[in-house]
Amino acid sequence: MFRSAHRLLLIAFLVGSLPTFAQKTDARLTQKLIEAMRGFRGETGIYVYHLESGKSVAINADTTFPTASTIKVPIMIGLFDQIEKGTINYQQEIVYRDSLHYDDGIVGSLKDGAKFPLSQIVMLMETISDNTGSLWCQALAGGGKAINAWLDANGFPQTRVNSRTPGREPFRTRYGWGQTTPRELASLLTYIRQGKAVSPAASDRMYRNLGRQFWDEDGLSQLPKEVKVATKNGAVNQSRSEVMLVHAPHGEYVYCVMTKNQADQSWGRTNEGSTLLRTVSSIIWQHFEPKSGFKPTEGYEKWW
């Protein structure tokens, strides 16, 4: 009894420390999303917030999930914090070394001694989710410890970088590269959108970076191509995740959907987690923009 009460108080404290927005539960959208989750073989959490109306949905929104590549949003923030402090320069030339190699993505395929502006490595981190480039940026940001300190200081206590971070090995074993909650990750993207992350100028640059996404076959595929979206997604065997801030005609909305412990560990468009990401995106768009008449182009699936 005492432990349960203590846990509830702790959760309330942690949630209360987040950047706050006036909210009211959208019961109709909540029910639609609960139905969409029915039968999913795994755990999932969803958080939705309509910035203009204040309507929200929170389904397991404060449960901790693996970030997969969505951790690259906090990594970028930590990097820009160092840039703001003058430790490094966004356009400075940096030199790739074979010791940085993690996998054979674009950055990992560079020749030892190759020189590139830091800004291009950041672009590869956010746009194509290059892993070697991202770990390089994490190191330049001062490592996971420095990034986590920024998150803690700015009211994001449940979002953490785990990999290559002293003291975080048990969490890395459980969650992988990073961990967060749907509410926190959506709030972090909103924080950037509102110009509050590091500085207004840094937030502006970061938000522009998040508006260029190569991996557009999930939630983005369910939105009109002319609508501006800032987004980051991630995938590992047992987890899929996506956070998006959509500049919809009748008001911007942000949402995050995350999964873990998926039974379906396949890779490809039919993965249950990937299918859920598309379904959630479509439901939210149709809910807030019912008169848009938008339907994904017939036959577009063959391109993915």
UniProtKB/TrEMBL annotation:
Gene3D superfamilies: DD-peptidase/beta-lactamase superfamily
Keyword terms: Hydrolase, Signal
Residue ranges of domain Beta-lactamase class A catalytic in the record: 45-259
Presence of the UniProt keyword Electron transport in the record: no
Signal peptide per UniProt: 1-22
A UniProt-annotated Pfam family: Beta-lactamase2
Catalysis: reaction(s): a beta-lactam + H2O = a substituted beta-amino acid
InterPro entries: Beta-lactam/transpept-like, Beta-lactam_cat, Beta-lactam_class-A
An annotated Gene Ontology molecular function: hydrolase activity
Keyword Cell inner membrane: no
Protein name per UniProt: Serine hydrolase
Gene source species: Fibrella forsythiae
